[in-house]
Each structure stands twice: as structure tokens, then as C-alpha cells.
Records
---
Amino acid sequence: MEYIKDPFEIEKKSFEIITQELGEKTFPEKEGKIIKRVIHTTADFQYADITKISGDAISSSHDALRQGCKIYTDTKMAMSGINKRTLKALNSEIYCLVDDPQVVKEAKERGLTRSMVAMEKAVADKDTKIFVIGNAPTALFQLCQYIDEKRIHPHLVVGVPVGFVGAKESKEALLERDVPYITTVGRKGGSTVAAAIINALLYMMN
Amino acid sequence: MEYIKDPFEIEKKSFEIITQELGEKTFPEKEGKIIKRVIHTTADFQYADITKISGDAISSSHDALRQGCKIYTDTKMAMSGINKRTLKALNSEIYCLVDDPQVVKEAKERGLTRSMVAMEKAVADKDTKIFVIGNAPTALFQLCQYIDEKRIHPHLVVGVPVGFVGAKESKEALLERDVPYITTVGRKGGSTVAAAIINALLYMMN
């Protein structure tokens, strides 16, 4: 079997194919890098239409990362897909609390999702400037409420929950808040999309 | 903001919506559980058409899991999305070698992807009976070659690489092998799809 084996060659060729198939659908340079990386990770061109990036999202998140910050995510899969070496070089880090024993216990007692209880704790940590919600609509709703209550004003919210119950609505709630955001309207999204967005933001800082 | 907060209620409602929207598109019970969980994790109904499950895939993988086995995956994201508690209860485990220092070193020296070198090592471990390729077409091509060489006869290959260079072709190669498989024809797939397939297989054993 003959096939391309060099990973750099594979990625380069992939982005060429994506650009070509997008055809007349073009984007500003930095936004394009995010959208193309999402398509690269999903092979789903619908993301060209549903990915929404607020005007201040890239500059605001880059400011936070340049100063060094914590990124909170509601999903271990997103965390494991994000380039930790690049993050560390920026003196930044990512964490997730949904498996934290205290969070698991409280969620059960209060009849809430673990993601919601974990979000409560993340918002209380003032070094957390970027929030990455790839899984739980409940976590994104919760974060929107904290923004309304002025308990937090994030440098960026990546709000891309996937699914059939609440995902779409939670992203609509995010779009109504005055906060830098990257989201995918409708049902689609998920942890690979979340990781691709953060990685794209990191790679364009090099 | 009013929304459903109970995670079990959310999942139940989600599967009801999926079943309803699939309409006349029905599947045998066990296959349906896999396909619906993939749709649940992607919000993409195209998976109803592109997910292919060989006739022996479910029974063969359940045999291996009941006896206790190792599952090898080429992606840390898939590993982190798979229910480890359920696996452990079955006396089974999952591992990934792409970050193994020896693998990283060899891949650089030999000009191969880390996934390929890691696959070489996984195939040499005779307790590894299930292979989950969610990322690298090169790893799936490599595995097909080892099957041809009769170095391994897996109980199941979940072959769902995503992307634009080699993914489609690597899945076509898998379909041509006489081995229990679950795959998604074409470009789509990825680590969330891989994890959803394994989790569906585990949950139906309860």
C-alpha cells in the first residue's frame, strides 16, 4: 500500500484541500486558521457556516495567553487534545474539574451535573481567563449566568457543546452576552472542535 | 434561564430525539445502539449512513472483553473519552503509545508517524485484541498490513480516522480485510466517534 507517511506533509496537504474545497468562501486570515482547523478535525465543511468568532475573540485571548493564564475546560477529552507543550511555553495551563472527588460528591447531593458544580469552582479562580465548554450545555448556561452576575468577565469563551438537549440554546445564550466568544451555532460541536479552536489560537502565536 | 439539569434525563431525551429524527431509518438493536451513540456525540445524522459494522463485530469484541483484554488506541483523546471504570470491571484496559519516548525517538529517526511506530509495538503485545484508530490513517494502513502478514488477527478493529489525506483510503483497506470491523466510510470520524463506539459496546454488556 502506497500512502503519504510524513505527518507534516499530511497536514499541509490537508489544509490545501480544505482551502480548495472552500472555494469562494474566504475568511480573514486569523479567523480562517481557526475555521480550517475545525474542518480539518471533523471533515465537516458545515463548520465554515456555523462557526462564529466575535471581533475581539482572537486579540483578547492572545492578550490573556501572552500574560500567562489558566484555561478551564469542562471536558477531559478537550484537555487531552490541546497542545500542552505550547501552552506551557506561554506560561499558561489548562485544567478540568469534572472528575474532582468534591465535585462528584456535590453534584450528586445537589442533583446538578458535575459540569455545573465544576464551573462554579472554576469561576472562583481569578487566574482562569479562558473557558472552553465542549460538552455540557449546563456548564455554558451556568457560565452565562455568572457573566450576568458580574462574577467573571472572561477573556474568551469557547462555547461549543454538542447535542440535542440544550446545546443550541446554550450557544444562543452565549451569543447574547457581551463577552469575547467563539461558538458553533446549532447542535454541532464537541471536544475535538474545542481542542482544534484552542490549538489554532496557540499555533498562530508562534 | 430554564433548562434540563439532570444528566440522565438529558441523555434519555437526546436518544429519544435521535430515534425520532431517524424516522424510518431503523437498525438491528445492538447496531442501532452504536450508531445512535455516534450521532449523540457528533449531532451528525450522516453517521447513520456511513457507519459500517461487520456481522461479527459485536459478538467478537464482546467475547474478547468478557475474557479480559487490552485495547490499543492511536489517540489519547479517544482513550480519555472511553469509560475506564466499565473497562476495569471487565478486567480489561486501554492504552496508547504515541507519546511513549521510545516511539517518539524512533518515529523521528525512521521518518514515520508516531502512530505507525506505536502500532508496531501494540501488535507485538498478544493481549491486545481490540484496536481503535481514531486519528491516523497511517496507523490503520499499518494494521491492515500486519493482518495480511498474519502477525495479528484482532477481535475488532474500530477504524475511524478522520481527514483529507488517506483517511477514506485507509478505511477502504480495512473493509477489504477479513476481520471484525466498525468503520465510517469516507472522510468523517475521529476520536469522539471512536470513543462513542467503544462506550456503546461496553454499555450494552451491562
---
Amino acid sequence: MISFKDAYQKVLDLSQDLGNELVSLEQAMGRILAEDIIADRNFPPFNRATKDGIAINYDAIEKGQTTFKIEGILAAGMPSQLLKNTANCIEIMTGAVVPSNADTVVMYEHIVIDDGWASLIKNPVQGQDIHLNGSDQKKGNLVLEKNSIISAAEIGVLAAVGKASVLVRTLPKVAIVSTGNELVEVDEIPLPHQIRKSNIHTLYSALSQEGIVPSKLHLPDEKDSIKNTLGNTLKVNNAVLLSGGVSKGKFDFIPQVMEELGVEKIFHGVFQRPGKPFWFGIQKETKTVVFSFPGNPVSTFANYNVYFKDWLKLSLGLPLQKIDVILKEAAEVKGDLTMLLRVKLGFNRGHLVVSLVKENGSGDLCSLVNTDGFIVLEPKSEPYEVGELVPFVPTRDLL
Amino acid sequence: MISFKDAYQKVLDLSQDLGNELVSLEQAMGRILAEDIIADRNFPPFNRATKDGIAINYDAIEKGQTTFKIEGILAAGMPSQLLKNTANCIEIMTGAVVPSNADTVVMYEHIVIDDGWASLIKNPVQGQDIHLNGSDQKKGNLVLEKNSIISAAEIGVLAAVGKASVLVRTLPKVAIVSTGNELVEVDEIPLPHQIRKSNIHTLYSALSQEGIVPSKLHLPDEKDSIKNTLGNTLKVNNAVLLSGGVSKGKFDFIPQVMEELGVEKIFHGVFQRPGKPFWFGIQKETKTVVFSFPGNPVSTFANYNVYFKDWLKLSLGLPLQKIDVILKEAAEVKGDLTMLLRVKLGFNRGHLVVSLVKENGSGDLCSLVNTDGFIVLEPKSEPYEVGELVPFVPTRDLL
């Protein structure tokens, strides 16, 4: 048994660099960028009209000219053209290249066009309505940093600089393993002493949100079978997540099997609730880490969110985001266990406020439906007070 | 031209009920539940041991008994058994059914076992370490409400009650359409007057995060071709998102083509920046809505996040989440335009604090990389002050 803080640190210490891989732009969403992205040309790459109207040379205005002969028309996608005469104008559309001997765009709303001539009805400001070549970014600038999370905004930038394929961090190969003879499949009618599998589905869907498609298996409470299957699973995965099989029961063979398979126990048992019988280890030979979570649904769910997700973030080169929230009600944590308490989050006038979820212990799966995350409270003699800041681990998308 | 507030309301007014569809549990993640979910049995369905140890009848303790003959062993997944003699005990594992004539579990840590007898080394409390039949939920209880977002926690509950397939809200069919002769593909080297497509990739990835796989097309700035293609697209989609082609340029045929296709214009032009030339309409016959966004990357991105995402939420039966954030710096909004300002969000001691992103107008795609969302500021004569609460629209996953 070790403290929560030590257990958490030991898990993070075994994060892994899984290397990089090339994916297509369409597959890059949500992945972690593994290369710096440089502007391959200026942003914008030319003096770009930002309004529809006419392009003129401001010198003519300064000479008192207010009516301009229209030389032609420039649409977006047309090669650049010069004004033949800088006392004339050219009609120009948003996105088109402004002639290099023009310097000002006047939008249609500020001119009157009659018989091939444009007359100003409002005086322009020199240089207006032109998005200047290189004014956002210069060619060679760093536009996206390595280790960025690729969201829709980053996809746009990657497209603009021509990255049809992108180097991203490789995701770990993960297996999820359920154990326990009492478990039946979702589409079965359980006998009175049986229950349906749920943890493995929870883990599968949680991992799928991280872009990971885990392999799934179920082990009976039978030692030889566990050993054979786990041996192979350890070889082909970077992380194995087990649910159940780690308490002190006669049929909980996992810790013993792990030892026989050369998986070094890092710890077994953490001073926390829920999730106390958590077993964590690493197979030195393969560097595969094993998260063996207690089988109670809330225990597995809490440990996945608190330990595994930060292990994953570190393994992908991401910083760990530490978020504090404000207690809406007092909470008492006595004894020697760090408490992971289920809370509901409210956005209250720019404040993150949490209230405790009514629950019935670590077997109470349904309480997780009302839960937005866990607050992590160390035991202390005085109660945590209303308004106090406490660390928060989200368990669903909240913002 | 209409106000931002009116435009926003008109978009919401045309949200659509797209009906429901059945998906497998594995495909249900992130979807919106379209049925109430009822517990098909009690949670837990039997008196369930929550520790490994022995099950006893507390009467024996009350009679002063401290040593118990072990009758046998009960593992999880074994049918229920009775104590043959309530003065005896039975070894029991976590998850197993507690005999109906036992009422207390004593964990291994609190007993000594010797030659078929278990002796207490700590007095138990009657009823301890049993997760009582139906104590979390009774059969027939509502465990998940219609219109819930299905996250990993909900997946676990759906699995537990045997929902191998789940009724969810149908997602809209969406087409995304780019226009503009200046655009080339991501893997092409643009000529000096050309730029690569980026908006369509941004929209594609943003929609993919909502579980929508949009169809993609590109229209040249040529009227007949636009009309043919759009006509078909309107028939087979619930929403069409266009980028570019709605300003006042000579080659911006979209509004005219829309009219010819029987798409009723709801509005064209909103008193907002960026995204002012936004065109919105509906084809009455098909009920397909058309979001025609201005082509500047920031305009398209802002309007997608501000208008389309809430249209989508309402169409899926979700409530609109209104979040206010705290200004870290003053902001001035004069004139008659509602400003959508790019901001970076910080989690500061339980407070959501935003600072303005340095940017160079609505063409400045790269500024979106530093942007976590937009704040929506109505024009007013006094500046918005430090510490003031303002509405926030996130543009990436933040919590």
C-alpha cells in the first residue's frame, strides 16, 4: 500500500515515448503534432483585396481625382495585373491580387459606376481594404509548434501550408481485459447471480475518444488460461488495462500471474477510495505497463481517469493540465485515504463550482451518469470548506 | 443586414428534428440518447459481497460466537447458496452472492483461518461489506434520460442494462462546399495568385468531431456549374455549408443561384465582425438549410462555431450551454457591429479568464491556433472592463 501521491508519480514515471508516425491530414484531427510547421510562403502570399470594388493608386486621389476609368476586372484566382495607367482603376473582387501599382481598394458601396467610369462617393483612406503580403506571417515563420493538439484550427493551418500528410505522435496500443466468472455479455439475460459486463465497454468508449481502438478480451477466473492470454497480450501492446481480479480473493490470480510473466509490480494497493486495490506494474522486457484496476465500476472509472489519462498525456508529450475548482459545499475527509469524490460541475458567472454527487459507494455505476469528474481530496482534520479550491479531474467533455 | 441577435435567433428557429436511429453500443459514444433507459433489474441485482472474506449471520455474533466453521467457498459467478447452519460461515469473494441467511461479510484482514475454522480478530458491524440488492437502483427506475449525451459513463450503464443497441438522435447529413477559382488542393504548389484550400478542411474536421462525416465539394466561380451541383446537394443533405461566394463581387453567384433553386433567403449580411457577409437560407421543399459563410478563414470559423454548432445542438435536442468568462483586459467595441473577438482561456484558481489574441483581421488564419474561442461583444459606448463577464463560444476542447 502506498500513498495516492506516490502512486500517481510512479505511474507518470513510466510514461513512454512511443515515437511518431505519418498520417493523412484527414486523420490528423485530435492527434498530437510531432513536427514544427513552417510557413512555406507569406500569409497572405500577395496583396489581397478584402472587399469587392475597385483598386486605385492613391496618388490620383491626392491630385484631386474622384472619377476613374475602369480598365477591366480582376477576380480571385486571376494572375496579377498592373494598372495600364495609374490614373485609372480596375474592378477587383475579394481574394484577388491587387495590382502592384495600386495601393487602395474602394468597395462598391462607396462608388457609383456609370458607363465604364467609377466615381467616388466617399473618400478612401490610403491602403484600405488590402490584406498585405506577409502581414500575418512571413515565409519561414513557425506557424504551429511541435506537441500542439491538432484541432480544427490547426487543420486549417496545416492545409494552408500544404501538409497533406502530417507527422504526429504514435498512440499506444492498448488492450482492455475484463475478468470475473459472474460477467455475461451485454446481449445476454443474466442469471440471478450474474451481471453484464460494463467496465470493458466504458473503457473501450473512453479510449476511443482518445483516438485509441483497444483490443478487448475477457479472462475467466482460471489461472492457466489467464496466463496464456495475458502473455500474448503483453507482447503486442504498450499498455494493458485490466478490470477486476486484483483484490484478495482466492480466485484473483492476476498479481501472481503477472509475476510469473515477468511483470514487475510497482505497487499494489493505494491509500485512496474508490480504487484502493489498484495494481500497477511493468514488463521490463517489453516495457508494457499494466494497469490492473479493481472491478467495481466506479473504481475502474476513477483510476482510468486519474492515472491512465495523465500517463497517456505524458506519453504523447502533452503537458498535464491542473485545474482547480471551487467547492459549493463542505466536505469532510478523515482517516488515511485520499478521497476521489464524484462531483457535478457548474459554470457560474465565470467560476467553476462543484457539488457532490449523491452516490452509494464504488459499485454505484449509475451515479457516474450525474458525475462530471472527481475532486481529489487528501485527508485532513478540518473539513474542506465552501469556496475552497480543490483539484479536479474531468470525466466527460465539459467545455 | 440584420443584427447579430436576430441572425442568431433566425438560425435557431430553423433547427430541425431529424428523427432517431438505432446504433450498436460501440457506435453510441458521443451520440444523443433518444430513449429513456430503465433498469431491467435491481442495481445490484443481489446482495453482493464487496470484500473477500467470510459471510456470517450476525445473530451468532450477538450470541457471543467468535469462531466459525467454514462450510465452503463462494466465488463471483456462482449461484446463490444458503448457509447450512447459521452458526457457520462460508468464504466469499468480492462480487459473489451473499447467502440469504447471512447478513454480514468480514474481510480476510479481520479474521484468522485455521484448519477449516475462521476466528474473528476484529468485531464486525452488522450488515457490513454487503452491497445490498437494489440499493443503487430498483428495477424499473429511470437510469438514463432521453437527450443525454452518451459519454463513457453512460456507455457503462447502457451495457449494464443490456442495451446492445441504442436509440439515438439521427445526425444531419451535411455537405461542405468551397468556392473560389483562387483555391488549389493541399498537395499542390500554388501559383503566386493562388492559395490552398483550408476552410473546407477546417469544417470537415470540426464536423467529424461531432460525429458527422460531411460530403465535400468544390465549386468554380461559374454560375451554371454551381447551380447544377448545388441543386443535387440540396436534395440529399439536411444542411449545406458553403465557404466563399457571398460578398458583393461580380463572380459571387451563390445568392442568385440559391434563389433560382428555391432556397429562401432568411438573411444576407449581419452587423458583426468577422463574418459580416453571412448568407443564410432554407429550401422550403426539402427543409435543407444553407449556411453560406464568407470565405475569409476566421469568418467561416467564427460563424461555424457561433451559429452552426448551436443549430446542430438544438436539432439534436440538446440544451444550449451559455458560458460567461471573465475579461483579463479591457476591450472597446464602438460602431454598429457585434464583435466576435478571438481569446485565449485560462483556468485561474477556479475562474475562467480570457485574454485577447493578437490578430490581423479576418484573413489571419494562423491566429486561430492561439485561439480557444470567441467572446461575443455588443457595441457600447463605454469600454468592457477588466473583470467584466462576457459570453464565450469555445472553438476547441478545453475541459
